[in-house]
From TrEMBL:
The keyword Repeat applies. Residues 169-269 form the BEACH-type PH domain. SMART domains: Beach (SM01026), WD40 (SM00320). This is Protein FAN. InterPro entries: Apc4-like_WD40_dom, BEACH_dom, BEACH_dom_sf, BEACH_Domain, FAN-like_PH, PH-BEACH_dom, PH-like_dom_sf, WD40/YVTN_repeat-like_dom_sf. Keywords: Repeat, WD repeat. Signal peptide: none annotated. It comes from Hypothenemus hampei (Coffee berry borer). The keyword Lipid metabolism does not apply. WD repeats lie at residues 675-707, 724-758, 846-877. Residues 273-560 form the BEACH domain.
Amino acid sequence: MDKSRFSLLLLDPGEIYFEDFSCTFIPADATRKTYDIKSQEGRLKMCSKSLVFEPKDYTKPLIKIPFKECVVIEEWKGGAKFIESDNALSINCREYIEMLEGNVIAPYQFKDSANFLFLLNYATISNCLTMISQLRRASTLPSVEQSNMIAAIVRSRQSRVTFDPLWLDLYEKIMLETPADKVCPLNINPGRCVLTTMRLYFQPYNNIDTYPVMKINLNSIKRIVKRRFLLRHIGLEIYSTSDSSNANSHIYLSFRNPAERDTLYETILEQSELKLDNLEQNVITLQWQNGIISNYDYLLFINSLGDRTINDLTQYPVFPWIISNYTSKTLDLNNPENYRDLSKPVGALNPDRLQRLLDRYNEMASPKFIYGSHYSTPGFVLYYLARLYPHYVLCMQGGRFDHPDRMFNSMADAYKNCYNNMADFKELIPEFYDTSQEGKFLLNSLGINFGLRHNNVKVGDVELPPWAENPKRFVEILKSALESDIVSTNLHHWIDLIFGYKQKDEEAIISNNLFYHLCYEGNVDLESIEDPNDRHALEVQIMEFGQIPKQVFTVPHPQRKVGIILKEPHQIPEMNHSRITISELQLTTSFNSHKNSVSHLFINVDSTKITSVGYDSKLKVFSLIQNRQVRSANIGSMPLSSCIELPDSNTVVIGSWDNQILLYDMDYGRVTITALAHEDKITCLVYGKQSSLLLSGSGDCSVRVWKSVQPTTKDLILDCLFKHLDHNSAVQCINFEPQEHYFAVGTEDGEVYIWDVKQFIIYKKYYVSNKVNTLVYSPDGQRIAIGCDDGTFQVLEVATGMPVFSKVLPSKVCNLKWKGHFLTVGCGNGILSLWNMFEVKLLQEIEAHSDAIWTVDISGDWKIIVTGSQDRSIKVWHCKFDDEHEERS
């Protein structure tokens, strides 16, 4: 089959192609003698706003006849004796358009009135004319009514088309069918979406695609994203990997309403064949912080979260200007003066221009704005991509290219305009940093005639700065700049402006980042506007102004860590290297002498003994060398919740459910101090070796701070009680920051308090999803891992409160322990999981116990992990590292 020159891009933006007919075009000046020479075989395309004739002869132009320009469309009444068929369509129009003459991409040729005669080879004129007449009648209506009438025609055709079950395999079952549109830049293609137990199908209602149906295997789908399309939450973008020649690796669909979209989305997720990639937002953020994800890939990911996609020019991915020097012969990427200030929007880079804009803003009536032009619109995207996609430009601009002097002719001029011009604030697009494409969008490789500039010079390739000899090198330098330490340490500021908390409202005003109000989603309730013409006008206006991305972050975005090495006391040699990994946990021994849940345990400094307490009121000591219990002591009659060892002594501090703190002397085997420390049970204890502070948490909603606790202390209350800190609900867990300048408290109502140790005031306060069972600081003290009763496992950036990692586990999270790059998670279902938090990946998950894992400890050399459980057992695990680490050890 010959490749068709016809494309939806030859139609008006959003115009729909229905079907085509084999025909012969008879020019008005054809005679019997010239009939064979002048007649043209081809296909007549019936579209929602026009008829398009595509001749078989590639040198002949395609002819587009807009319905609005037609005077007469009727069945041909005969008259030419050399034409035997009466199955013909006669058209008289005021204007028509010729496209792709000589198969060359060029501005369309608009021709004056003409008569057209098309002989239909197979279709019946009476059947075709009914539909064509309806579409012509729609073209005479106002735009809104025209759109409604066309939509009704589309729905009517949709209802008559069914999915052919012969496409299915023998055991494949249809789960859902729904009308949908395939979305491509500047156009949509209606069809039917069918979900089965094995595949997702899209069947277009026309023959524009190579295959009559597109199919995507569910097991090849890696990611599914809900999208906002044309200001409505009706889009669904699906990414997959498939080797099938007739299956797309990517498809963007829109639906009639959010309910239909959401139903398909949820039904897809229910299918057992689906295996999605783990691309949670907060996993990627933490990987980016650790340097696993590049700045380029992270910006692409955030754009996707913000509803930016290459399939929608109104919401195309936006990237920042990075380099500010486009005139020097050389470029030093280590010199900060060559970089744009990422803490400011483009419009605020030039202080003189900003002041003029603010003067105008201050005199403006509400709703005020600083910038009347946006940083990303379809026109701006095609400004950069005109040489790569000239057919897109012709589609959007009604068959014409922009004035040659207004085109993207020079990088230096483009940046100069964005820096100085009072109406130019546009950012860049991903292609400027995509080294895989080698900067091809900067070359006029198609040889398009864009016209002559004012100096009589023909528009050709984009003029590059002196420091780049060719487009490939130019993009490579920009990519290197994007990945530089200078950008890495400042990129979070730009993210705050475009996707984060500085995007709108008061913070946008403070940051000089306020755009025209129609740029912001939700500022205008389109559904509440009853007049369809007013609503349509507003939609067009919003499209032309550009749209702010969906807000992804509501708190300051964390900074990327550059050149930071994690350090921790007793850390094993070279543990900061990301390639070190634990390959296996091997069970070496277990102890089962507790008669009730093991609530807390610790490994002593030399990793020879384990000390534990339980709900059976027992304190027990186990020797790892002798592999047996060496001590058991009754400590009161109530469950014991926690135990810690005082440094440089053989004394254990114990917390009890009878509201008491006890000091137990291991040398003499007796309790030396008993203190009624709280008004409810003691839930947790922690000791700071650097600060010499003991912290106790209780069900009475308080944390008490004890100073200079020693084995020789006579009265804990009188001699050591230093501070009493109240909270809103029962305290569940406490942990010191590694430098002990702060400590974190988790409570029953899901609040996390960060206390300043020097002043004992609240430094930060966050709310998480549910009761906080456990929390622990990262070795660098900049993050805090939190485990909740609802299974939430989260890592927060302490400075901003932003979750940089989040996952919901099948069972409650009972205990967390973080050393080096590794973090253990003990869960309510007895599962012990081990994570590499540098690469943010799960290393191992084992069924360690038959019930909840309440307590975990790790030896200083990371060779031993000990777990204690509600199933009354204590288990000792040996950590086996990869071969590389074993050799170094």
